[in-house]
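Page 42, continued from yesterday. The earlier attempt failed because a stray header line got pasted into the input along with the sequence. Redoing it now with the clean sequence only.
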Amino acid sequence: MEVRKIKVVKVVEEVELKEIKEIDKEISVGSWSDQNWSSINLNANYQLFVLEDPSLDHNHNQVKSKIVGFALFLESKEERLVHLLKIAIRGELQTKGLGTKLLKSTIDYYMNEDERDGKFDKIYLEVETENKEAILLYKKFNFKTLHKCNHFYGTNIHAYKMLLTR
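This time it went through. Structure tokens are written below.
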């Protein structure tokens, strides 16, 4: 499969939201409710990135794009900080480098002087302490662990708070 594009979504259409919620439910911890997902169109500080796989017909014409992953951020321009709330790739497509591609694109979008006029200096996130693959991915991009939060996701489900600075 060739994933061709990462799209910045300002307003989430119902069809896209359905695919995103399916992916979100595959995540073991922190799946959002329908009400939470519905609210992202109401707050201009949310920024959604989707990773798409264009489906082709028998003549190799693009007919539909399938969302294979997403990243959701909350922007705080006053603090020059973005909070990575969620990043997920469809379960059957994990370990194929798609999460790396998506994370790199979003970091470039926020931290690259040319892309956002240097408006953001920091990306902040929480990650479950048992999610070793995600922790390695974040460290690969130079996120630093700030501290551990006990019971962050529920009883005996802990998180690390991590930060990337420019």
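Notes: The mean pLDDT is 83.
Reminder to self: strip header lines before submitting.
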